[in-house]
Structures are given as structure tokens and as C-alpha cells.
Amino acid sequence: MSFLSGIDISGSGLTAQRLRMDIIASNLANSETTRTEDGGPYRRKVPVFSIKEYSDKGGTSVKAGVKVVAIKEDPSPLRMIYDPGHPDADVDGYVAMPNVNTLMEMVDMITAARAYDANVTAINSAKAMAAKALEIARG
């Protein structure tokens, strides 16, 4: 594994966590959306991660890094609230609300932000080690 492989691995983590944060932001923005283009309330989205594979210089398959393979809807049940005056209320006065839990989304956002920061730290450490190695080589 080369010096640049470590940066590539952390870079894939940065990309995945940024997408995760974008999805969380979308979930939070739509937490009260009762009518979508598809009909019905918004459903929480979640990214699905997988191991990233690539071939090294020798043609060997290497598993390193992460990639997003899908963005799926959370199948958990919708929240039902009683609001007979709402335009989307059913005959009993209940409105189907999105299955977005704001507290859970905020915890996920903090986790994604910390994972993003950890990848930035790993990249900066790799750059610092490379710079120190060059400095020693010039010695």
C-alpha cells in the first residue's frame, strides 16, 4: 500500500460522509412535508455504504475505502398526528407525517461530521509524514 493509497482511502470517506450529511440535511428539511411528487408524505432517506475495490499496480484487487452504493427509503412507519384542519387529513382527522426523527437525524449529523473530521486528520497526517520523509531525504 502506497502513501497515496492512504489519502485515497480517506478521500473516499470524505466523499461518503459529505453525501451522508447532505441526505441528513434533506431529511431535516422535509421533516414536515406531507405531500411529495410521488404522493404521500416524505420518507426518510438513508445511504448504503460498501467497501470500495480497486486494482493496484500489480493487477491485484484491493479492498480499501468506502463508496455509496444506494440511497434507500427508511421503511419504518409514518407518524400519525391528529389535525382535522390539515388539507392532507384523512376522514378521521389524522395526517400521515414523515418518519423523520429530528433527534436521530442530529445524532447522525454529529457522527457524520466527526467521521469527516477524522478523515481530514488522517489526510493531514499522511501529508505531514510525506513532508517529513522528504525533509529527511534532503538531510
Structure description:
- With 139 residues, this protein is an alpha+beta fold.
- It has one domain.
- The protein contains two helices and four strands.
- It has helices spanning 3-29, 102-138, and strands spanning 45-55, 61-73, 79-82, 94-97.
- The strands form two sheets. The chain has a two-stranded antiparallel sheet with strand order 1-2.
- A hairpin with a 5-residue loop joins strand 1 and strand 2 (61-73).
- Helix 1 (3-29) packs antiparallel against helix 2 (102-138).
- The longest helix has 37 residues, at 102-138.
- It is elongated.
- The protein starts with a helix and ends with a helix.
- The mean pLDDT is 92.
Helix content: 40-55%
Provide the spatial order of strands within the biggest beta sheet. 1-2
Distance between the termini: 25 Å
Which regions have little confidence, pLDDT < 50, spanning 5+ residues? Answer: none
Mean pLDDT: 92
Q: What would the principal axes of the Cα set say about the shape?
A: elongated
Radius of gyration: 22 Å
Beta-strand content bin: 15-25%
Kindly give the count of domains: 1
| H/E element sequence | HEEEEH
Structural class: alpha+beta
Number of strands: 4
Tell me the major beta sheet.
2 strands, antiparallel
Number of helices: 2
